[in-house]
Each structure stands twice: as C-alpha cells, then as structure tokens.
Amino acid sequence: MTRIWLDELGRHVGEEVEVGGWVFNFRSSGKIHFIQLRDGTARVQAVCAEDNVSDDVFARCDGLALESSVRVVGAVREDARAPGGVELVVKDLEILSAALEFPIQKKEHGVDFLLDRRHLWLRSPRQEAVLKVRSAVERAIADFFDGRGFVRVDAPILTPTSPEGTTTLFQTDYFGEPAFLSQSGQLYMEAAAAAFGKVYCAGPTFRAEKSKTRRHVMEFWMIEPEVAFLDHEGNISLAEDLVSAIVSGVLARRRAELDVLERDVAALERVKPPFPRVTYDEAHKLLAAKGYDFPWGGDLGGDEQTALAEEYDTPFFVEKFPVSAKAFYMKRCEDDARLTYSIDVFAPEGYGEIVGGSCREEDLDKLIENVAAHKLPPEPLEWYLDLRRYGAVPMAGFGLGLGRTVMWICGLKHIREAIPFPRMLNRFYP
Ligand code: 4AD
Ligand code: MG
Predict the structure, then answer these.
(1) What does the pLDDT average to over 255-272?
(2) Which of 9, 42, 276, 359 could form an S-S bond across to 396 if both were Cys, CB 3.0 to 4.6 Å?
(3) Domains, in order of start, for the chain
(4) How does 250-266 read in b/e, with b if 16+ C-beta sit within 10 Å?
C-alpha cells in the first residue's frame, strides 16, 4: 500500500490507505481512542475502536505521547463535523518513535522559552499558518516577476562593500582580507540590470543593528528588483503593483491560515493600487502638527512611522527623502537638490516600513562625490563606478523586506514569528 498525505484523504473515501504523521492530541473514552494526527498538509482525527482492531493495536494506541511519530493503516470515512470532512478508522498502527514528554504544552509559554525551542515550536498551528503564508508570499513574488519578464539573479552574500552604511556591518575574515555579509544585493542588481534589463534577487541580507525593536532582525530576506530606464513614477508603480500582487496571492491561497491567525482580511482586501502618497516634507509637517519634533533631514524612526501610519488604512508611500537621510547611490531631485528620488512603503496598522528604494545616481562624477561625502572606502566600489563608465542609463529599484511583509499580512506583534529561525540581538540559537 502506498502512503498518502493527509490532505489527500478526501479523494479516498471508502478506501483503505496508509498515512504517516505526528500525534498532536490524544483522548480516549476507554473503548475508543481519538488520535489527532498532523503531517504538515492537514490535521485529521484517527479513531481507534476496541472492537475494530486487535488487542495489541488497541493497547499500543492507548495514551500515545504527544509528538510521537506513527504510521497508520485505516479506512477513510466521511464525517461532516471533521475539519477536512473526513476521519480515519484505524485498522493498524505502528509507533515509529515514541516521543519524550513534549515541552510545548497547550498553556501559555514565555517567548524566550518558545524561541529556545523554535525547532519544536514550528509544529504548532499558529507557526505553521505563518510560515505557510510566508511561502505563499514568496510564490506570489516569483509569479509576479516571472509574469513581467524579470530575470532572477542571485547576489553574493560575502562582499567587500557596505551599500547601506558602515555602522551595521557583520565583518568576517576572507583569507586575510575583511569581508562583510551583504546588507543589500542592490549594487549587484544594477550590474545585472545593465546586462538583462529587468532583474531581481531574493536572498538573505544582514544588518548588525543594535536596536531591539519588534521590526528588526539581524538576518532578513530581501526582494530587490532593479530596472533599467525606470524613473521615480515607474518605481512607485512597480512597488504598489508588487505589494498588491503579494496580498492578493495570499488571499487566494492561504485564507484558512489567515483564519487560524484571526487576521482581519477586510484590511488586506483594501490593498489595491494606487497607494496614497505623501512627500517627506508633508510628512514632516504632519508629524510636527501631531507634536513630534524630529529635525528635518533625519530618517523616520519607529515612533514617527507608527504615528504617520495612523493616517492611512492601506499601505502608503513616503517619497523624496532628504539627501542626509539616505544612502550614497540615490539620485537627487532635479527641482530640489536637497531631496532624492526615494520611496518608502509603509504598511498600515502601525507595521512600519516594508519597502525602501530609489532612482540611482547615474552621473560618474556626482557618484564619486557622494562616495566621499559618505566617507565610504572607494576601492571596493571601483567596479560599481564602472557601471557609470560603460553605458549608464536611468535605473531604479527597491528592496522589500520579506519578514516585515509577512508580519504585516499575518498581523503579528513581532517580526520574530515571521521567520523560521530568527536571528535577533543576543540570539542565534537554535
Ligand atoms: O530601506 P533598506 O535599507 O533599503 C536597501 O537596502 C536598498 N539597498 C534596497 C534597494 O533599493 N534595492 O531596506 C529595505 C527593506 C526595508 O524597507 C525593510 O522592509 C527591510 O528591508 N529591512 C529589515 N527587515 C528586518 N530587519 C531589519 N533589520 C531590516 N532592515 C531593513
Ligand atoms: Mg529604509
């Protein structure tokens, strides 16, 4: 008999099948044992009745320890009350591995207790739902770019450069030379866009951010499109189209998981282009009126982001940040050299920045000036300057933080649950 997955049981009503799985709940009336099984595709009840099985099998099923792994042969029976519409009538059950007492119980646990056991915590229904949504987000992203003719190009992880500033670098030794874990694949995507036109990368990036907020981790996945001949308006359209496609992809495929998470889907159904736009200047005035006194020229901090987000019930753009708040490669606005053609997308409901991007400075001399002004070592950027020596064109792109996006779509309080194995300040175990 070939083993099938639990989500396939509905197609085998009336048949005898073999399944494998883990026991996530057990109760017994004495004469009937109710074994709740999960295998990652579904959760199903297996019923083991004294009259139906050998004494041996009945005794084996009694008091099955939670998270024991089992192989079951049984008959598939329709049951309208069951979540998947079916249950399994046990004929035979083999214990593959009897589990020790499982440390994660139905009661409330402290978050450190759970994070120390992240490798086991993944099995709980909420974590399963979040990570299935994450997978759907990744699929929606791949479909979106495929559908638009983008080439996926993988950026390196070990790099000589620090595109996002030298204060958040993870340094390592590369056979006697300093190397840094990539903060962003962008510079490499610019090279790739000059080769392939429309490109994106989707890989891990690293920031040694000494901030302990609910939105920051040290290692996060970033999706970075880069497009030749794209301008500021085009960059805005691309970002709002991508974010909308991600949300509709999740709504189409992962409603059941959003239900488990008790997510307000009405808030997600509102996510459609165009998104509202506010300039940095306007945002600065708006925040001043709300009593936030942060200096013009600085980046928006967590509190400011949250206060601004109260104004919107959909994702929104803040555009044209000051030169002083942003990275060396950003192109200045033609009508105001204090500003850049930059964009951030902020998620509503106080989730903060999920996208950051810009048009790129294409003029070689200005770029060299910016490198000096940002006090970046010029040698590791020589290759990047070449892109301005050999056929520079207007170019734009952005980075979308995967963890932040999943956190918002799932309605999580903290980014740590949006990542399978989060790397946080003072934590990289397990
Ligand atoms: O705004 P950032 O720093 O932009 C860049 O790195 C550009 N080079 C991207 C580009 O234009 N290709 O980061 C982009 C996004 C943020 O909006 C946020 O969603 C996420 O990456 N991010 C983080 N997520 C979790 N933890 C952190 N420490 C993050 N830092 C940035
Ligand atoms: Mg940013």
Answers:
(1) 97
(2) 359
(3) 2-97 (2.40.50.140), 116-418 (3.30.930.10)
(4) bbebbeebbebbebeee
